[in-house]
Each structure stands twice: as structure tokens, then as C-alpha cells.
Amino acid sequence: MRSDHLLVATKFSPPRINTRHIPRTELLARLREAQHCTAALVTGSAGFGKTVLLAQWRQELMKAGIDVAWLSLSHDDKQFSSFHSYLLAALQRLGVSCDSGDLESDGSSQSIEATVAVVTTAAEAVGKEIYLLIDNYHHAESPATYRLMQKLLDYCPANLHIALSSRSTPQLDLGRLRMQGQLLEIDFTTLPLTLGETRHFFELNLSSPTLNADEVHLIHDLTGGWPACLQPIATTLRIHPAKRSKLRALLWKSADLHTYLVEDVVAYLPADLIEFMENISVLRRFNAELAEHVTQDPRAAELIKRAEDENLLIFRIDLDDGSPWYRFHPLFGEFLAQRLSRQGHDKVEGIHRRASRWFAEHNFLVEALRHANLGGDLEYAVNAMEKATPATWSMAYISPMLQLLERLPQETLFAHPKLFLLGCLTYSYSGRPDKAERWLEEIRRTDAAKNPAISSKLTIMDSTVAMQRDDMQRVIDLLEPLYKVSIDNRSLHYLSLAGLAVSYMSVGRYDDARNIYDDNPVRPEDRDNDMALGFESLRAQMYLTEGNAREAERIGSDVFARSVAIYGRMSIPANVCAATLCDADYELDRPAEALEALANRFGILRASMPDVMIRASLSRARLHVLGGSPQAALTFLEDQTNHFHLHGQDRAEACMVAEQLTILLATGDRLRAGERAAKLNALGAQYRNATGSRAEILAIVALARARLALFDRKPTDALEALSDVNAFAQRYGRGRTQVTTALLCAVAHDTLGEDADVERCLTQALQTAATLGLVRTILDEWEHVGELLERFKDELDLPPAPERYLTELFARVAPERSLPAPVAAVRRDADLPRATLTPRELEIMDLMAQAMSNKRIALTLNITFGTVKWNVKNILAKLAVSSRYDAIAIARQRGFLK
After folding, report:
1. % of the chain with per-residue pLDDT over 70
2. What is the pLDDT at residue 484?
3. Beta-carbon contacts of residue 812 (< 8 Å; ≥ 6 apart)
4. Other Cβ atoms closer than 10 A to 477
5. Which residue has the higher pLDDT, 465 or 864?
6. 234 Cβ contact partners less than 8 Å away, ≥ 6 residues apart
């Protein structure tokens, strides 16, 4: 038995919580709600913040006047006698009087019962709520320790509450407490940081450089919310800010992370468990049967259970096949795979080959193909794909198919019909339609084209190439005759329906597109098919093409959530849907949500369907402008222009150039805007008589010409160009274009002094915008039309709905009408930059004036910290100041604050 004076005092002291620690708000709320439970159990892998969470809870309890004792265990406390001494000493700090000198610590049943009797009696006598928090409980390995804690929990008085944090699941029978609602459990699935917490961490720990949404998402996706990874990243970026361009490599090759994993995760693991985990590390997911087949170890199920109980950065995956599936944390899996590679190339290839055969035998063809590629077994990969049933076809084939296609001779592909068809789809939908088109031309000259398995699908393959070529009329000509033809391959069925629907939309045949959805509802058994999800997502795109952003957002949100839940955030259906959702959120003036939808999704900017790439690219550029970075928008648009030009995507190229022209005119750069206009005119000349989707190029050119004419104060030229734009918008049902055209026509008529036409155009724009619920379409033109709307607002003969809509627009941009005369005069002072604050910005401005922090503002308004920071940044930019203090001073001067 140790004397109290020989105990290490620091074991009773929790870690110091400073301002750089992220408050685990949601987890603390769960602890708070269950603080009257007998026990709380926090289990998770090393570095997932168990200790910090308990320390934060301790602070909360102590601020509420509750007595709390802390005990940190270490490797030295494996023996019962050590644990016994520290436990009693911790309890004494709570006023639980138990003289350790009178209690035996030999671990016998008699001594344990005596300890429990003394502790429970003394704790109950304290007469108030007391909490004992034991950190690193996994070090308490003695069977006698388990018996003591079990009895203590079984007979715990109502006022004593015990919380344990552990890397492994304690050997305690907690079923009774669980059934009685007396146990709170926070495990490895809930401990990882949320995206918002990851963002908050870098806001607290990295003042410069500030990470953008793409970088935060990339870090969060790679770290999986593992807190231990974040501090080395922040430290490296503070010292070497240039490394932010190599975040992925920074994470995968981090020496600090490698050392941490070696010293804190695997240091005390038995060799057989480490070897087993290394051997299955190349698997993106695994179950016991697969692991046994790959490792040839009959103890696979037992070893997986041990890894799970030890919380060795292993996650359980919920699938419908009844067999528990798992995956490693990506960084831990990479760490293990690097260790495996030291055993030689032959060993790794052998594992991949065994994995490929198991996946193929169980009809998991994507994984079978991937592992066959990595195992160098091309023949098996080809045969596996040829045996694939149509029901297993998936967009997920694209990535492994690309790797396979680059290594196979063309004759092999032509000899295997299914492989050939999947190859065509892969090239079409990965931005390489030229390759697919050449294959289709060549195979038609061979006997392979006579094979019904190929010949019956050639038309669909042709349509995918035409879609990538932006030739929507050809898509219609190819797919309309097949509309009523039964297609046995369900994936190709939805693919052909999607192609026909998007083509109808592009040429303004919305009723025909709606009929496709009405006549072909997704079957219940196909609801989670990724191509069916892609088909559903196009319905949201249809509403957005018409201009109805609210309906697009409603439908898109549902499909996006299902895509993420089933296939993951970076899956193809989720990426495709994200472009529509981002565009809809931007139109609804939800920039933070738009940024989140698009963050870290670079693939859809350059390798997707034309409409997807255009929407994503324009949204990204406009968000740059909205965030105060027009130069970043121009640089991005120039890169996209070059890419689309190289790949013959003329409509996409025209959209990028026209957006550059708009930004350049807004910044007063007439010379460079003129250069963009010349480039657009050259593009337009190629499509002088175009129809269908390519007719949009002429409308884009005409709209750019109108903007340039308005800038040059040539209203007649502008009206002539806008007439062409309006004709396109009317014919093809483009609501947003109709509104933009009407607004710019109003500006042109005002220059000519034609007030009646100004009123007509403004009325038309407001009625259409109110019906569709458009916001940014008008706000993005506010510099041109804001003063007109203010001047003519009382002259417009508007129905109630558009009138309310106009009132909401004024409220959103600035409460100018309600300002007293002196304030209005101040705002028109030439020495002060003109600024308009949205209602949300005014609300935040008012709380800033009350000296609230961004975090406090977020809590008060029940919005995210990121949203507050975004709005504060906009306020400072609009008021042309660099500090909150200056912003408050100017806001008071201008009447924004009372």
C-alpha cells in the first residue's frame, strides 16, 4: 500500500484547457443532459479528444458549483494496488472519507467488498452531488480492478457519478445501467470532430494563412475528424505557409503523425495483431470472411473483434447484407499499408489478388476490378468484368476502369462486349469523348459490331458522346426512338432516360422532360442505384434551368443527402447533384451553403456533363466575387476557359469568357473586357445559325455585347443585343435570363429617358423574379438597377406578391427608406464608400456593437460560427475598414446602429 505522500500529484490534475481547444458543444450537451446518470463511458482511439472532452465537462460542472475529482491513470497503474490507492485518494478529494490504511489492497473478494462498502457509505454521507472522472481507464488491466469497479457501479449511491474515458471497451457488465437509463455512452463513432469543429479549430489555431472552404473540406475528409492530426498541420502551416498547396501530401507523409501512430497507437500491441492489420490495410472495407481469405488466418473474426474493442481506428460500416463490415481510418490505413510495403512487392500483390477473387465471387465488381489492377492480374480483371451482371453496373466503375483501360490492348476490349461498353461510358463521362467516339467508329468496322450484346447498345453509347459534345438535338434524335423500348440493363435504362431528359431541358421542352419523370418513376428496388440517383437529380436541374431555384433546392437537397448517405460525399452522384445544389443556394443568396456544397469537388469542374461543369464553374467564380476576390474569380475563369477550349467545349468556354467580361466591367477594366468581347464574337461567328443547346452561345455573346454597350453608354445598341437575348430566353424558357434581360433593358431605356419603358421592364422583371423566387439574379445587377428600383418603386403597378418581393429585396440590401434625412446625406457623401448591409449583416452588426465575439453571436442567433465570420468579413469589406471597432464607428455614423 502506497502512502498518500508518495502518490503523483499531477494524476489528480486535468490538462489545462485554453482558448485554442475546440468546445465540443454537441458532446457536452449530451453529457449535460445525462449528468444525473450513474455512469458515463467515453471510448475511442488515441488522439480523438476523450481527455479534452472530460476536462471541458469538468469545467462546466465546477462552474455550476459541483464538486469534481479527476484521476489520470498511466501504464504504471496496471496493478490493482496502485489503482486502489489512487482511487481512494481521488475520492477523498470529494469529501468521501475512506482511510486507505484501514483497507486492504490485495485484490481479494473480501478486500474489494470492504472497499465498496466503505466508499458507498461515505459517498452517500457527503449529502450532495459529486463526480469522479477517471481518464485513461484502459491502463487498469488487473482483473481485481474490473471486479472493484463493477461492484462500485452496481452499488453506487445516487449522488455519486463516475465517468470513464478509455481507448478500449472496459470489461464491465453495464447492461443493467443501460436498461435503467443510468449510462451515457460516447463512442468512436461520435467522437470525431464535425466539419464545423474542424473549421473552428483552424480559425482558432491558424490566423494566417486563412484556410478556404476547399482546404477545410480536404483536411476534414482526409483526417475523418481525428483531432490529433490537426495540430501538426496547423503548426506546419504557420511555419511553412507555402505548404498549403500540398495539403494532401502534408497529411499522408507527416513525420509527426507517423511517430504518433508508432508511439501512441501500436507501441503496446501484440505482433500478431499488428501483422493482421497490416495485411488487410490495402482493403477499403473488409469483413471477417474477406479478412480470413486475404490473410489466410482463421482467427480473423477474433482479431477484428479485438481491434474493434481496442478502438484501433477501425470503423464499423452499416450495410444491408447482415455481415459486419469495417474500414480503417484512412490515415491509419495508409500508415499500415506503408509498413506492409516493406515486406516486398510480391507479398502486396498476392494480397490484392486474393482480395480480387473474393470480391468477384461475391459480386462486388468495383472492388474486384480495383484489386485485380493492383495485383497485376489483368486477365482476371477482364474476366470478372465480363461476368458482371447488368444489375451490378455502377458509376463507381469509372475510376478502376480508367486504370484498366490504360493497360489493355484494344483487341481485348473489342472481344469483350461488356468491357467495351463500360469503356465507352468511362471515357465519355470522364471528359474523353474523343476516345469513345474513335472506339465506336472502329468497332463498327469489325465483326464485333454484329454481336447483339454490343450492337443493341451502340445507340446509347453514341448518345453519351453527343451529350459530351453538347449536341443535345442529336441526343434527342438517338434516344427518342428507344424511349418505349425495354432495356434489360437497369443502369443503362436510367442513363438513357437521364440523357433524354437533360436534352429536352436544354432545348426548352420542359413538358416532355416532366413526362419522362411521370412515366418512369424510379422503382423501389432501384431507389439507391447511383445511376437512378443521377436521373433523379436532373429533375432538380430542370427546375433550375427554368429558373425555379426554390424547387431545385428542395429536390436537390433530398437526392444529395441520399447520395452522400449511400455512396459518400465524394461519390459521383453526390458530386453531380452538388453542382445543382450550389447553383440553387447561390441564387437563393445562401453563399455559405453554396460554398459547402461545392467545397473540395474539383472533379466536377472539368470532368462531368457540360451543364454540371458550367454550373459549378460559374458558381465558384461568383462566390469568389461575393467574397471580395474578383481577381481570384478572373484567374479561375481564365484557367477554365483554357481547359474548355482545349476540349472543344465551346458553350462552356463562352460562359467562362462572358463571366470574365462581366467582372472586368464591374471593376472598370474596359480594355480587357473588350478583349473578352472579341473572343466571344469569334465564338459566336461559328454558331451563327445554331439551334438547341448551342443556340445559347449566341445568347451569351449578345448579352455580353449588351453589357459592353451599356458601359459605353450606347443604349440603342444594348437594346438591339438584348432583343436577341430575350428571344432566346422566351423560346427556351430561361427564367433567370428573362429577368436579367428585362433589368438591363430598363437601364438602357432610362439612359434614353423612356420612363414608361423603364417601368414596363422593371415590372416584368419583378413579376417573373417573384414567381420564381430569384434573389441573386437581381442582387448581382443591383449596381445597375438599385437606383432605378428606388426611383420608380412608387410608380410600378405591381400585384401584391411582386410588391412584397420588392420590399424584401430592399430590406435585404439596405433599409435606405427608413433612414432619417441626415443619415441618408452621410451615406451619399463622396468621401465615404457606398455600402448596403443585408438584414443578417445588420443583425450581426448590432451584436458586434454589444462587444459580442463571433462565437457568442453564433450562439445568440443560432447560426454557425462560419456564417458569422463570413458576414463579418462582408461587413468590413462593405464599410472599407479592417477592424470591428472601425466598423462599429462607421455604422453608428451612417445610422446602421441606434
Report:
1. 92
2. 83
3. 589, 775, 779, 838, 839
4. 15
5. 465
6. 201, 202, 205, 206
